[in-house]
Sequence to fold (371 residues):
Amino acid sequence: MKKTDNNWFIMAILTIALFIFPSHAFASGLQSTTVKKGSTDISGMVVSIGEKGFNPSEDNYLRIKANVSMKNKKTQLRLRILNTKGECVFYENFSSLKVGSGNEDHFFDYRWDGKADKENDAGLTAGEYVPNGKYRIELLAYYYVGKQLYGTRKYLSIRVSDNAATGEAGVGEAFTVPVFTGFAGVDYLAQIFIKEAGVEDAMSDDEKVQRIYHWMTMNFKHVHSGSRYKYPLLHDLDAVKTQVDYYKKKCDKYVEDGVRIYSYECARCEDRMTHHYGVCTDHAAIFKLLLNHVGVEAGICRGYYIYRNGSRTGHYWNYAIVDGVKYYYDVDVEIQNYGKGQGDYYWYKDTRAETLKRHSFIQEEWYLYNR
Fold:
């Protein structure tokens, strides 16, 4: 993603406010009634957008992320995008939500392609890109207790403009807010690993990915959990609990200020990170969270690794968005084969065509909720 010297420049154009819906504001299937603030909250909301705005086009998207606390398990989310007249150009309701590892927090992550949908009341044709102008992204978390409606919303403003870059270049120019996990030990270790890898804020995303990939290759081992007793504890988090707690408070403040957001993934990574070991699932998760920490959009792919003899085995690897282009990385296989004559960066920064020579996809985007 394009580097921005001052995160606050981007955040200044994202006017964020928290409101409770008045009774007349509930539409699209929600009953009109008195609304009370309940146990659901939206603690953070961010969007990936370029300095010139968002230009809806093929291969371009607006990524909307939010943290939702859901103590009531019947909580639903409603996403609406409205023009300056208050007309809805896009609507979607999410009734089945996953929460992070064993807690009540949900990471909402949605990619809008900039097209109007059939629910729009702005007179737009479903499937066409919305015109230039200012828009309001509105996220509502709500639930019913009997006939009583409880709800909280957050919204932010964006600009759609044909002066912004299109396609993959638009994705590349979008400022990505760093995504932390929300788990104190994991996030604390992540910032240590990133420092050891020599990553600096001024580096390009490509160089950040390269340094983190190489550091993991050199510092992690492919080990199943049953053999972990052979590997010593390298990071005793109990011994540095004061530092861990202090860093968690800093992270919470970042989220509150809208310059970070939590994914609530990868809770089990703490054990693997303290010992520097794991299998493909672990290494893919750790690689992803390290890239997310430095503001690089990345995810986990699920499928099969294909051996030279044609046989295959279940496997997990990564993608990362660099300069608007999706590349694939397999740090786990790199860890297993480093030093065996195949060199460094052998499974690094592959195109999809190159990846398909050795991998078969089941899921392009696999999440680690409750893992």
